[in-house]
Amino acid sequence: MDLKKNIREVPDFPIPGILFRDITTVLKDPEVLKAAIDSMAALLNDVEFDAVLGPESRGFIFGMPLAYKLGKGFIPVRKAGKLPAETVRKEYSLEYGSAIIEVHRDSISPGKRFVLVDDLLATGGTAKATVDLITEMGGTVAASVFFIELAGLEGKKILGGDVRSLLIYE
Fold first, then answer.
1. Known catalytic membership, residue 58
2. Is 149 a catalytic residue?
3. Strand runs labelled E in the chain
């Protein structure tokens, strides 16, 4: 199945000059969604890991079904103040300011291996902050998997490590 044909392109969103890749057209079609999750799972056939980790909110969309399909646990990475138990946080810079992500302290154990899953790799800021958070807590990022990669923004270079993307746009 050609998944790219199922992604809606919205010009000038959120600002003029941006061509937005809308995944809601993938999510609403059960056959296309299944193909997307199955294809992302296939990208991990050779990776040994303990759990899937996904940043809020679109990392949840792809991370949860991927964890379920692969028989792994899922760890949510949330915006500051959204998790109820003791957390570890990471502040990072964005083009327009800064943001903070958090994970429960008991979610990342030293020596455990994780796969970071998200919908889109663009500049790599959030993904890099997530990887840094995992490694600072003693975990290892076995691989990072994205549904879409915007290769021209060089997020893969910033992120480093084993980065795998299902759909690549130049």
1. yes
2. no
3. 8-11, 19-22, 51-55, 73-79, 87-94, 97-104, 113-121, 140-150, 163-169
Catalytic hit among 56, 58, 89, 113: 58
pLDDT digits (tens, 9 = 90+) for 19-64: 999 999 999 999 999 999 999 999 999 999 999 999 999 999 999 9
Instruction: Say how far apart CA 84 and CA 71 lie, in whole Å.
Output: 25
What confidence category does residue 96 fall into, taking pLDDT thresholds of 50, 70 and 90? confident
What is the distance between the alpha carbons of residues 145 and 121, in angstroms, rounded to a whole number? 9
* CA nearest neighbour of 118 among 169, 55, 71, 70: 55
pTM: 0.95
> Which position among 31, 48, 86, 95 bears the catalytic label?
95
Q: Which two tokens stand for residue 111?
A: 């020596």
Stated length of the chain: 170
Residue range 128-147, pLDDT digits in tens = 999 999 999 999 999 999 99
pLDDT digits (tens, 9 = 90+) for 60-90: 999 999 999 999 999 999 999 999 999 999 9
Q: Please report how the helices 58-70 and 30-42 are oriented relative to each other, as an axis angle in degrees rounded to 10.
A: 70
CA dihedral 164, 19, 94, 67 (to 10 degrees): -40
